[in-house]
Amino acid sequence: MASNDVKMLIFGLNGEHYATDIKEVERILGYQEPTILPESPVFVKGVINYEQSILPIISLSRKFKLGEDKEDENRKIIVIKREEKKFGIIVENVYEVRDVNSDSIEVTPSITSTIEREYINGLIKLEDNIVISLDLEKILSSEDEDKIF
After folding, report:
1. Taking burial as the number of CB atoms within 10 A of a residue's CB, which of 26, 86, 87, 97 is the most buried?
2. Do 31 and 77 touch, CB atoms closer than 8 A?
3. Rounded to whole angstroms, how far apart are CA atoms 115 and 96?
4. Which biological process, per GO, is one annotated for this protein (predicted)?
5. Which sequence spans correspond to the domains of the chain?
6. Between β-strands 5-13 and 93-101, what pairing exists: parallel, antiparallel or unpaired?
7. Residues 118 and 64: beta-carbon distance below 8 Å
8. CA 29 to CA 37: how far, in whole Å?
9. Can you name the CATH fold of 5-148?
10. Vertex 84: Cα angle to 131 and 143 (nearest 5)
């Protein structure tokens, strides 16, 4: 791995490829249906039992206003560590972990909204795909955190 390479986890969501720095990921779990909590934010799918504690599960599809999560046997839950707090995100598929040269990550075009640009690091050009690089630590605002944790 070259000094300007970043290890990225590439996953699918609504037919698109997304990536995040592997350092943000604690574990990848098989999908389990979360327990729904009444009056939770619309993007919170529910909670699951994870390592003897409660893990909030976030639907990125709902958070990004892409509709509902697709029900598929390949679905996974990626556990994200954020300081002492953890949460899970639902993804359609986990494709690979690969080294990505940081020079190949391009700035997000201004066609995306300002809010979205907060948690989009940029676009990665791979052989046959454009992958959206996410900063999952910024996915939840402090208001979101107050409602969830």
Report:
1. 87
2. yes
3. 27
4. chemotaxis
5. 5-148
6. antiparallel
7. no
8. 21
9. OB fold (Dihydrolipoamide Acetyltransferase, E2P) (2.40.50)
10. 70
